[in-house]
Specification:
Length: about 475
Amino acid sequence: MCDLMPASQPAEKIGKMKKLRRTLSESFRSIAFKKEDSGFDEICVTKMSTRSCQGTDSVIKPLDTIPEDKKVRVQRTQSGFDPFEKPASQVKRVHSENNACINAKSSSAGKESPKLRRHSSPSSPTSPKFGKADSYEKLEKLGEGSYATVYKGKSKVNGKLVALKVIRLQEEEGTPFTAIREASLLKGLKHSNIVLLHDIIHTKETLTLVFEYVHTDLCQYMDKHPGGLYPDNVKLFLFQLLRGLSYIHQRYILHRDLKPQNLLISDTGELKLADFGLARAKSVPSHTYSNEVVTLWYRPPDVLLGSTDYSTCLDMWGVGCIFIEMIQGVAAFPGMKDIQDQLERIFLVIGTPSEDTWPGVNSLPHFKPDRFTVYSAKKLRQAWNKLGYVDHAEELASRFLQCFPKNRLSAQAALNHEYFSNLPPRLWELQDMSSIFTVPNVKLQTESGDSIQVCARRNSHGKASSGSKH
């Protein structure tokens, strides 16, 4: 901009322009984005940082306005993550100065817009609003991770329970890239089997992601029901997991950290994918990604062997591990030492790979044939006997637990597997935001046949975690 100015331009004028530019920049950063509907379906971004983090292209920026019928609207697009992701539905861009101007006009005309009244309350300017830190009350700490603390909270706007994921910011490093990634991905995901992001609050010290509150997670639920879950409950949990994964995979998003702690369970038995801090949008097959993803017990052999060229099949190995754990009551591959030990446990059951069974395995960075004992593949029921008690369970599990990534069953294909053939056909006709429990006679049961009893224990709600389940 400066090199376009005449050389003779007075320094005073240049100073005024710089001051104006700073003022405009601050104004843009204070803009809040709100969805058209009120309540918890709103996501407000207040003073969202526009700095890139640690040299990545993960940036959240204010967007250009599009005037429409006296309202100012924007399309919120995902920046630097997934070029294939469709823009979220248009949302209102509410600016305090615009509201004041419109309110003044409405008052002079003797009329007030009903929609305007919903978002602003002239009689109580200090009333709680979305996008404000003081709009939520912290009730108790649910957990703490390496960069975030999760609290159970309550909204002062509508009184509903929420989960507050408070991410600590450091002045030198800015917003953690995992937080920006999680917020950017979740803002466009609307599905009954994916945890809902209600609100985003940005202050100088913290970034708070406000989620719907869910009572427990699958890890805690299995701890309360040791020895394996009721087979029909396993089927409903797995169906919901595949339903959520199919939704994100169709949008070219990989979760990359599937484990029981990241699968939330509501008091009605609804399963929700959570913790998208490691998730990535995969745009083209040639992209490579870090192999330091997925907790060790649920990490597929290709990633353990150093592969960084993977797709949705990465998540499907984790689905197989979780499926077996729900049925058997113990983790499928509970490595106790390191990656070598984890691979040995996998090869003991699945068989040690070769170029014949896994084309390209010899080219993986950490695969050295002389390092591994040569095992032949076994039937899965030999390792996990309860698979043999449930129709089609062993065959479905074997389709997930394939060493060669391209042989793994996709989430969408798995939903049509014969294992689910006795479920009501209406489950396949549901809209994205409709719960499976809206279908008559679909409900979770306890071993005694009564309605499910979910303990309201502390859940992870996206808590950062590394290492094993325990």
